Amino acid sequence: MNRKSRLFLFVAAGLVLAVVGFGLVSPGGLELKILPVKGGPPLLVLPMEPGERFTIHYYHSVENAPIWETHSLDDGGRIFIEEERYLKFGAGMGRMPGVGRMVQRGPYEVIEDMHMPTGDFVLRIGSRGVDHTVIWRRTRTNLSAVAPHQAVRFTARPVSRLYGWWRRLFRHPATPIVGE
Fold first, then answer.
1. Is-contact 154 77, C-beta < 8 A?
2. Cα–chain-centroid distance for residue 46?
């Protein structure tokens, strides 16, 4: 191998290492996982961007009234509740002093602008009829259909750009396909 070929290979290898290194250290978004507390594969893996929202929709077990809880993630992967919307004041629902503001949106009472940190949280999935459903990017995943009566943990973390690229090419099996 001549000197010119070795130099070319050295420069090419350096460029590849620089791109991989950049991909490993630069931020590539976030990943929200919904995992059974007792272990097992994730029920959902959602690639997200800072500030992006997801919603948990369900029917209150006492009043059988619909409830929507909208959450967001910050750039560190911390989870915040942003809004609660419900049909009427129900058991366990209502305004918390100093958190958000109460408005009427059609027939719904809404607490908006909450931006209250929840961090990782555990949710006990209700049975069919309660229909705990995660709404994300126009997809709906009914957790009550796949894990009724199970406790699940919502947890998020920042991911590297390289990992983000990888997941764009090879979707996690627990990631819903947007547009289906």
1. no
2. 5
